[in-house]
Amino acid sequence: MNALLLSRMQFAVATLFHFLFVPLTLGLSILVAVMETQYVRTRDPEYLAMAKFWGKIFLINFVVGVVTGITLEFQFGTNWSRYSHFVGDVFGSLLAIEATAAFFLESTLIGVWAFGWKKLSPKAHMVCIWLVAGASSLSAVWILIANAFMQHPVGYVIRNGRAELADFLAVVTQKFAILEILHTIPSGWVVSAFFVMGISAWHLLRKNKVSFFTRSFKMGLVMGLVASLFVFAEGHFQAADLAEKQPAKLAAMDAHWETEARAPIYLFTWPDQDNQKNALEFIRLPGLLSLMAFHDVNATVRGLRDFPREEQPPVWVVNLTFKLMVFLGVWFILITLWAVLRRNKLTESPLLLKSFLYSIPLPYVACALGWIMAEMGRQPWIVYGLMKTSDAVSPVPAVHVGITTVGFLILYGLLGAVGFSLMATTAKQGPQE
Q1: Which uninterrupted H or E stretch holds 381?
Q2: CB contact at 8 A, 263 and 296
C-alpha cells in the first residue's frame, strides 16, 4: 500500500473513532442540563440524581473524546501537509477559532461544573451545564463549517498557488455549511436520546428504580422523536443542495447512471461501476430522485455517465452507506412513535424495551455511514473542484505512515476499551443512593 492509501485509512480510523464520542457529548449535555433545570425548578431530588448519574457518563465520554480528537489536527501537518499548505489560510483560521472560542470555553466550564456541586449555588451550577452544552455545539459548528468549505469552497482567492481567505462571512454563512450543521448536530441528539433510552430500558426490564429510569426514558424519547423527524426531513434539503453543488455525489447515492427526467429511486441496487450500470435493481419509485433533488417529479437529474470516470466517486460505497443510513433513519422514527404510544406502559412492554436496548449502537452506525457517504462521495477531491486527494498527501515514505497507523489502531483500541468499559460499568450500576 502507498502513502496515500495508508494516510486515508489512518485519517478515516481516527475520525470515525473520535466521532463515536462527539454526538453523545452534543446531546447528553443538553439532557443533563434539562434534568438539572428540573431539579432547580422543582427541588425534586430524583432530578438531581438523574443529572449526577447521566452527568458522570457524560464526563467519561467527554474525556475520551477530547483525547481522540487532539490527534486529528496533527494529521493535517504530518499526513496532509500539501493540503495544509494549499488551504491553510482558510481551514486553519476556522480550526483556530474552534479551539480558542469554543473548545477552551467548553473544557473550562465542564471543570467548573464537575467540581462545583458544593461550591456553586444550584442556579449557578445549572447555568454552567447549559453553557457547556452551548459551547459543545459551538465547537461542532466551527468544525462543520471547515468541512463545508472542503465540500463547497467559497470566499477564497487563488494567490501564489494557494487558496487564501477573501470573504470570511461567505465561508461561515454559506448554505452548504448551514445545512450540514442542521443535519449533524441533531444527529448527535438522536445518538444521545437512544443511548439514554437504551440504558433506561435495560434497567426497566429488571424493574430497577422504575421512576428514575421512566423519567430518563421519557426525556430521551422527546429528544429522540423530534430529532429523528427533523434529521429525516432536513436530509431532503441537503439532497436538493447536492443536486446543484455536487451532482456526482447525488447520482452515486442512488447509483443513477443515465441523465433523465422523472428520475427514479431504487430501494435496492447493486452498482457495477466498471460497466457503468446497475447489476441489480429492485423496487423502482418513479420520479422520487427528481423530487428529492429539485422538488419536481418531472425534473431532469444528471447521471453518472455524464461525469468522467476519473471524477466519479466510488459508487458502491456511497450508494450502500446512503441506503443503510436512510433505512436506519426510518427505524428511529418508527420505534420512537411506538414508544410514544406505550410511554405510560413501559414496564409492561418488554419487546419495546428490548428493541431500544439493542438499538443503542444503531445511531452511532448511522452517523458513521453518513460521514463515509459525505467524504467518499466527494472523491476524488479533497477540496471539491480545487484539489484532488492524491495531490494533498505529504511526501513521506509509506512505511512511516503504516507504522503510525498501527500505533493509532492500538492506542484507539485501548482508549475505546477503557472508555466504553467505564461507561458500561457506570450505566449498569445505576444511580448512587
Answers
A1: strand 381-383
A2: no
Question: Which one-letter DSSP state was computed for residue 359?
Answer: T
Report the largest interatomic distance among the alpha carbons of the chain, rounded to a whole angstrom: 69
- 278-316 burial string, b = 16+ CB within 10 Å, else e? beeeeeeeebbbbbbbbeebebebbbbeeeeeeebbebb
How many CB atoms within 10 Å of residue 409?
15
C-alpha cell at 40: 432547580
Buried b / exposed e over 128-142, threshold 16 CB at 10 Å, is bbbbbbbbbbbbbbb
pLDDT in tens, the chain (433 residues): 677 888 888 888 888 888 888 899 899 999 999 999 999 999 999 999 999 999 999 998 888 887 777 777 777 778 788 888 888 888 888 888 887 877 778 888 888 888 888 888 889 999 999 999 998 888 889 889 988 988 999 988 888 888 888 889 999 899 999 999 999 999 999 999 999 999 999 999 998 888 999 999 999 999 999 999 999 888 888 888 888 888 899 889 888 888 888 888 888 888 888 888 888 878 788 888 888 888 888 888 888 888 888 888 998 899 899 999 999 999 999 999 999 998 888 888 899 999 999 999 999 999 999 989 989 989 898 888 888 888 888 887 888 778 888 887 888 888 888 888 888 888 888 887 6
Cβ–Cβ < 8 Å for 335, 356: yes
Q: Cα dihedral sign for 207, 208, 212, 218?
A: negative
* 387: number of Cβ within 10 Å: 18
What is the grid cell recorded at 186?
441533531
How would you class 417 by CB atoms within 10 Å of its CB: exposed for 0-12, middle for 13-18, buried for 19 or more? exposed
Distance in angstroms (rounded) separating the CA atoms of residues 299 and 263? 8
Task: Name the residue with cell 431532469.
Answer: 300
Selection from 102, 116, 22 nearest residue 63 by Cα: 22
Burial level of 317, CB count in 10 A (0-12/13-18/19+)? middle
Residues in the chain: 433
pTM of the model: 0.88
